[in-house]
Structure formats: structure tokens, C-alpha cells
């Protein structure tokens, strides 16, 4: 890993692309990850420009936490040593248009860069963020950290602890009617095979049945959860054709930052919940795989899929059904937070696909 420095072209920063929630390249959700060594300071304006240039749903910026180092001593040594040995870091996330308070897949990607590209030796790394401290650990059976290129190409399986965003908050006005324009805009599909009528009118969309709409406002997340009716298939969920302009007209960015549309899987399916995520208010029409969405899905589905005293056990198996798609394991940990609040363990694979230098 090359350290940040100033050459003839100005500032040079290590930059990576990681596909999160997948074990193979070109699937899951890509995130850009930029390492900021001690002494490197980027304005928010420049970070936003970099995120727009990378044009992934999120670009993450990692920098060492002041005074932190492996073993609790003072930070020291070269930049590669810091990223290889420190446990605590600062982390911020930017979409192409704005900074966000939480991004799960870019957190997973950030830990993968530290482990795979930097050879970080810590059993877990801690990120200090606008959503509090997020800890990411290597799952059992993951390969040991290595800077060997062949080893770095192997996917790593990671688990991260996120805040639990139970969708129990009062619905904002645009979402109170499940048959209203906002919900209809993200649950409708054109009827397959229906041609234009003789009058030249376009085929009318068909809205999938909606069981209920929930809202998670905690920490400024502002996600709607749209739960489709029983019997809605994965194929129907995948066939939804969102009207992003209508979504933006139906709600402003202040009350709604994103919409999770989900359905319970049928018997015999390899997964238990299927979902999609739409965030046109954040400059991301559809996010391929959304870690923060599963911090909402977990609290909603755990009582239904893992009821107390029930026979089912272990993490819930979920699939985000975007064109790239991704697999996520989700488990709600009751009272596991330092303040006694619930946490959500979100686990998945990550594959490092690009390593380079950003020239500023």
C-alpha cells in the first residue's frame, strides 16, 4: 500500500473499490474507500467532490483516531503501519450528492480494505462515526490478514454491529396512505406483455399489495419500510419499476431519505426475506445492497421469524434483490449496546476489486 504524499501531481491518496455483501467481484454493492494518513486534511467540499467523481452509492473516508494505536499506545510510525496496526479509526460516508449518517456496506468495505489491503492484525476494528462507534470483526473461518496480493484477492467474511433502528416512529404525512402516490411510486410494475391501447395510452401500472408501512427516524436515518402482502414473490419484487420522479414529488428529502420495500420469502426458499432499497433523495435511485436497511429489517422481522421460544434459531438469511444482488445475515442482539440498547449484527462477505492512487 502506498502512503499518502505530495508528488509532482499534488496530493496522492490510496483509493480502493470493494464489493460488499458478495464473495465474488462485480456483484454485491461497490463502495469506494479512501485512506487519509495523519496530517492529511480534506474539506467537506473536497470529500463531496471525490464522492461525486467515484460515483458509487457511497465513498468512505478512513482516518486514524487521534491518540489511538494498537495496544493503546500513542499513534506513531508511517501511514502503512498505522492502517496495519491501529484498531480505532474515524469514518465518514458520502453519496455522490450528500453526507449520510450511516452506511453499512461502506463500513464493511472499509474494514475489508484495512484487513485485505493493509494487513491489519487486529481481531476487530472500531470506527467512530456520526452513528456512534461501529465495530467490525472477522468472522470465524476468514483468512488471516496478509498483504500478499494473492491472499488479498480472497473474499473476507465480516460481521459488524450497527444500531438497531426499530421502525416504530410516527409516519411522515406523505407515507400515511399506503395507496397514496409515494408508496405507489415504489411498489408498482407495468403489466408484462400489455401493449399500448388503440387510443395510444400507455399501459397502466399495477401496484403490489402492501401489508403495512413503517418508519425509522432514529438518528436522522428517516427510512420508510414498505412491507408487501403475503404471497408476493421474489420475481414480483424484482419486477417493480419505481417512478423516482414521483417519489421525489411525493416526499421531500427532509422526512424521507430512503425506502425499503420487502417481502417474506416462501417455503423452501434459501432466504427468509427479500428486499430492495430506493434512495433518490440521496442521489442513489437504487442501492445494490444496503447494510443500514438491514438495521431496520432486523428489528421488524426478528419477532416474526425468530419469536421467543420458537424453533428457528440463528441469524436471519436475507437477500437484497437488486440487479447485482447481495446476501446478508442479520441478527438482533437485545441490550448489547453500551447504553443497554439493542444492536443489529449484520454479516457478509467483501471482495477487494480495485487498488489505486487518487491524485489531487
- What is the end-to-end distance? 18 Å
Largest sheet geometry: 8 strands, mixed, barrel
> Rg, please?
21 Å
Name of the level-1 CATH class of the largest domain: Alpha Beta
Structural class: alpha+beta
Q: Helical region count?
A: 8
Name given to the CATH homologous superfamily of the largest domain? Diaminopimelate Epimerase, Chain A, domain 1
> In CATH terms, what is the fold-level topology of the largest domain?
Diaminopimelate Epimerase, Chain A, domain 1
CATH architectural arrangement of the largest domain:
Roll
User: What percent strand?
Assistant: 25-35%
Residues in helices, as a percent range = 10-25%
Pfam family, one: PhzC-PhzF
Family: Belongs to the PhzF family.
InterPro entries: Phenazine_PhzF-like
GO molecular function, one term: isomerase activity
What's a quick, concise take on this entry?
The chain has 360 residues and is α+β, with helices and mostly antiparallel strands. The protein contains eight helices and 19 strands. It has helices at residues 44-54, 79-85, 104-117, 149-152, 181-185, 234-238, 244-250, 291-305; strands spanning 5-7, 10-20, 29-35, 59-64, 88-94, 99-100, 124-129, 132-138, 156-163, 188-190, 205-207, 210-216, 223-228, 258-264, 273-279, 284-287, 316-320, 326-333, 343-359.
Amino acid at each position: 500500500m502506498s502512503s499518502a504524499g505530495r508528488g509532482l501531481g499534488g496530493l496522492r491518496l490510496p483509493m480502493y473499490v470493494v464489493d460488499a455483501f458478495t464473495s465474488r467481484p462485480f456483484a454485491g454493492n461497490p463502495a469506494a474507500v479512501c485512506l487519509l494518513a495523519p496530517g492529511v486534511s480534506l474539506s467537506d467540499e473536497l470529500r463531496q467532490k471525490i464522492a461525486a467523481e467515484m460515483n458509487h452509492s457511497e465513498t468512505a473516508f478512513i482516518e486514524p483516531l487521534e491518540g489511538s494505536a494498537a495496544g493503546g499506545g500513542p499513534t506513531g510510525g508511517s501511514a502503512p503501519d498505522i492502517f496495519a496496526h491501529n484498531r480505532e479509526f474515524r469514518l465518514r460516508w458520502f453519496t455522490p450528492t450528500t453526507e449520510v449518517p450511516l452506511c453499512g456496506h461502506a463500513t464493511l468495505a472499509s474494514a475489508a480494505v484495512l484487513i485485505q489491503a493493509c494487513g491489519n492484525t487486529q481481531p476487530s476494528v472500531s470506527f467512530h462515526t456520526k452513528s456512534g462507534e461501529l465495530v467490525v470483526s472477522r468472522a470465524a473461518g476468514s483468512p488471516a490478514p496478509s498483504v500478499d496480493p494473492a491472499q488479498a484477492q480472497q473474499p473476507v467474511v465480516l460481521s459488524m454491529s450497527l444500531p438497531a433502528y426499530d421502525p416504530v416512529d410516527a409516519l411522515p404525512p406523505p407515507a400515511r396512505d399506503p395507496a397514496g402516490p409515494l408508496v405507489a411510486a415504489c411498489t408498482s410494475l407495468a403489466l408484462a406483455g400489455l401493449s399500448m391501447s388503440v387510443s395510444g395510452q400507455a399501459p397502466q401500472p399495477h401496484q403490489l399489495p402492501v401489508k403495512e408501512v413503517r418508519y425509522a427516524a432514529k438518528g436522522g436515518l428517516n427510512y420508510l419500510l414498505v412491507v408487501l402482502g403475503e404471497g408476493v414473490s421474489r420475481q414480483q419484487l424484482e419486477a417493480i419499476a419505481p417512478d423516482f420522479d414521483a417519489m421525489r414529488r411525493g416526499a421531500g428529502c427532509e422526512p424521507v431519505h430512503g425506502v425499503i420495500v420487502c417481502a417474506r420469502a416462501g417455503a423452501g426458499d434459501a432466504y427468509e426475506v427479500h428486499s430492495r432499497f430506493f434512495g433518490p433523495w440521496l442521489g442513489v435511485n437504487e442501492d445494490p445492497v444496503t447494510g443500514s436497511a438491514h438495521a431496520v429489517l432486523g428489528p421488524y422481522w426478528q419477532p416474526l421469524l425468530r419469536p421467543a421460544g420458537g424453533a428457528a434459531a440463528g441469524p436471519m438469511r436475507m437477500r437484497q434483490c437488486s440487479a447485482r444482488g447481495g446476501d446478508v445475515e442479520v441478527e438482533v442482539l437485545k441490550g448489547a449496546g453500551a447504553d443497554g440498547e439493542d444492536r443489529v449484527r449484520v454479516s457478509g462477505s467483501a471482495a477487494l476489486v480495485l487498488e489505486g492512487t487518487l491524485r489531487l
